[in-house]
Amino acid sequence: MHSTRPAVFDDDPAALHVLWHALVPEPGGPDVRIRAVMISSVDGTTAVDGRSRPLGTPTDRLVYDAMRARADVVLVGSGTALAEGYGPARIASAWADRRPRPAPPVLVLTRSLPGELIAQCCSAGGGLEIAAAATTPRERVDAAREAGVTVHVMPDGPYTEALRTLLRDLGAREVAFEGGPRLLGEFLTQGLVDELVLSLAPEIVVGGRGPWLVTADEPRRVPMRVATAFTCPRGGLYTRWVVGRAPTDVGGTGSVDRADWADEANG
Questions:
Q1: Is residue 53 assigned to a domain?
Q2: Bacterial bifunctional deaminase-reductase C-terminal domain spans which residues (predicted)?
Q3: Which of 178, 195, 205, 224 has its CA 20 to 30 A from that of 189?
Q4: pLDDT tens string for the chain (267 positions)?
């Protein structure tokens, strides 16, 4: 009979080895694997005072850093990149021996390419690149490129195909998607998330106003199954979920095929 008590990991070398292998994706699956990396409190809150960092634990940081060390590309919405002050990816010392190649590029998703995003990419010194929707105004793309920012324009067509095509063209097989909540909701309903690596912080935000783990305009059911679960002496629950079949309307059976972009303010 299997125990329902999660394994307990710490940051000693043996535990790091187990953790690294616990984050290996499921065999099979698409050639471009998009794996969401998120944290929330027990009640589903993903930010305190507008940032997710206060929810983090040392083990959450190990998981987050391990997913970046595994990834060929880090993917994030522009709203999250701006709110969290994103810069170039770094490989943490705990995982440096498992990644002989340079840190992955951080690819910021946008449809409007605002000036503040261009400025942040410039200040990152090449560590942040842009993935612009096909509908992004050409003058915004030109302005970013003239400022020295690398801009990848996605091809026309359904968004799910356009993003996977771009990632494939960039040589990405494993992608760490870091949110935010509204974009995660869109990705889940569009079938763009293959796995969810979720850290549950050991706290409840009483009276919190969100944002919540997933935000969407309409309720959808996205079946999932847990592949890995563990905890650590300092608290928290760390899980890896595999996304199941196509999402459905709540109470219905119809699949979802939405190609609209998320509101970048919540991205």
A1: yes
A2: 34-229
A3: 205
A4: 444 456 666 667 788 888 899 999 999 889 999 999 998 888 888 777 666 666 777 888 899 999 999 999 999 999 999 998 999 999 999 999 999 999 999 999 999 999 999 999 999 988 899 999 999 999 999 999 999 999 999 999 998 899 999 999 999 999 999 988 889 999 999 999 999 999 988 888 887 776 788 887 888 889 999 999 988 777 788 999 999 865 555 554 333 333 333 334 334
Let me know: does 164 contact 185? Beta carbons within 8 Å: no
Q: What CATH code is carried by the domain that includes residue 244?
A: 3.40.430.10
Give, to the nearest 10 degrees, the angle between helix 138-146 and helix 115-123. Answer: 20
- Quick one: DSSP state of residue 194? S
- Overall domain count for the chain: 1
Which DSSP string corresponds to 125-188? TTSEEEEE-TTS-HHHHHHHHHTT--EEEPPSS-HHHHHHHHHHHTT-SEEEE---HHHHHHHH
Residue 187 counted as domain residue: yes
User: Do residues 143 and 9 make contact, with C-beta atoms less than 8 angstroms apart?
Assistant: no
Tokens, residue 48: 């305190």
Range of the domain at 194: 30-253
Residue 82 domain flag: yes
Could you tell me the two tokens for 54? 């206060």
Domain contains 249:
yes
